[in-house]
Write a structure and sequence with these properties.
single chain, two-stranded antiparallel ribbon, 12 helices
């Protein structure tokens, strides 16, 4: 008697975030899992520890003292540097990477605005400041309670430990895996895998050169991100009426943004967008061959 094969366990579907970006393209992004976010945070924390270790050795060398017996001013400098690194340092890296710190970049993650708007400096500042309340401040009470409130080390450590544990577990119970800082800043962390052009569209654009004579001034407005959003728009799987309405909206936004003087052929939006997509793709590829990479329209 043959054994019956066990039923194949289907992978649990990932949570998704539906957005409508300013270019008018409705898209869905995969939310990062709790494990992926933990990996990104650990990598960032390891980088922080390495920088702190290097600073500690530098201060010890400067004051000619063992690491465990630094002078008072050196300790003050160390604590100030620790605060700047854990808050301002990673804030700067996220701003420079447009929502991607080194840990998030290595884990393939990105911070986005939950409503689909451009990610703002205020949102990143709020996320990083909330991490002080969520993690660093209560950890300080856990690790050095006597330095802050002498005589109350036991109760303070217990309360601070429960505070850290509760906020670390908060993303496990939130539907989109957001931490408290995400809710305050209005952001989410999504997967940002390396985008590849699908073969049919890339092959068709390579075979069919754009009919419209787009200038460098038209094509220099957008970057790789907008090219990907335009490809998503051209691949939308909707009913004919809804797809046409979406492409008309995107076409109008693109023409207004790049300053295109339309002609009678632009009444049908899809041919215009396909021509613009082909021209923009070749333009960005030519720039890459010269070592010039334009990530998006904000990349000067």
């Amino acid at each position: 008697m043959s054994a019956r094969p066990l039923p194949r366990r289907e992978a649990r579907p990932r949570s998704r975030l539906a957005l409508s970006v300013p270019e008018g393209v409705p898209i869905e992004l995969e939310l990062a899992s709790r494990g992926e976010r933990a990996v990104g945070f650990v990598l960032d924390a390891l980088l922080l520890l390495l920088l702190l270790a290097a600073l500690t050795l530098l201060l010890a060398f400067a004051v000619q003292a063992p690491v465990g017996s630094l002078a008072g001013w050196a300790i003050v400098v160390w604590l100030l540097a620790f605060f700047l690194l854990r808050s301002g340092g990673f804030l700067w890296l996220e701003l420079r990477g447009r929502g991607r710190s080194p840990g998030k970049r290595a884990a393939g993650l990105r911070i986005v605005d939950a409503a689909g708007a451009p990610l703002t400096v205020q949102a990143l500042v709020a996320r990083n400041l909330m991490r002080e309340v969520e993690l660093w401040l209560p950890l300080t009470f856990v690790l050095a309670p006597d330095a802050l409130l002498p005589g109350l080390s036991g109760p303070i450590q217990l309360v601070a430990g429960l505070w850290v544990l509760g906020l670390l577990l908060f993303p496990c119970f939130h539907p989109s895996g957001a931490r408290l800082g995400d809710l305050v800043a209005g952001t989410r962390v999504v997967r940002a895998p390396r985008a590849l052009l699908l073969p049919e569209l890339s092959a068709s654009t390579a075979r069919a050169p754009a009919e419209r004579a787009f200038t460098h001034a038209h094509l220099d407005v957008y970057g790789i991100y907008e090219l990907q959003m335009l490809e998503k728009a051209l691949r939308l799987e909707q009913d004919l009426t809804a797809r046409r309405a979406t492409l008309v909206q995107v076409s109008q936004l693109v023409r207004a943004k790049v300053g295109w003087r339309g002609d009678e052929r632009d009444q049908d939006a899809e041919p215009f967008l396909r021509d613009f997509y082909a021209a923009l793709r070749r333009h960005l590829e030519d720039r890459l061959r010269l070592g010039k990479r334009k990530r998006d329209k904000h990349d000067g």
